[in-house]
Amino acid sequence: MFYLAVAEQDYPQSMVLASSLISIFNNVGIAVGSAAGGGVVTHFGLNWLGLSGGVFTVVALIVLLLLNRVRRQTKNE
């Protein structure tokens, strides 16, 4: 949704392209999550799967906060 909001505000002419890229990003996210989960289970065991999911969640939150900060700074300039 963040991606579509940025596209709608900053590049309204590219909404069709932005909407079509969402399914691609979803599939890439599923593939990366599956590969990471498989690697964690293979190398560390099933007990570590929740912790690795938590790490992915924290990383995603940090990236989102950084993107919001950069977007606000560029909007104010």
Strand and helix layout:
Elements (H helix, E strand, L loop, with lengths): L1 H9 L4 H29 L5 H28 L1
Please characterize this protein's 3D structure:
86% of the residues lie in helices and 0% in strands. The chain has 77 residues and is mainly α. It has one domain. The protein is elongated.
Task: Note the gap between the termini.
Answer: 24 Å
Beta-strand content bin:
under 5%
Overall structural class, as computed from helix and strand content, comes to: mainly alpha
SSE order, as H and E? HHH
Number of strands: 0
What low-confidence regions span 5 or more consecutive residues with pLDDT below 50? Answer: none
Put simply, the count of helices is 3
Mean of the pLDDT scores? 90
- The coarse silhouette is elongated
- Specify Rg, calculated over alpha carbons: 16 Å
Largest sheet: none
Oligomer: single chain
- Percent helix among the residues? over 70%
How many domains is the backbone divided into?
Answer: 1
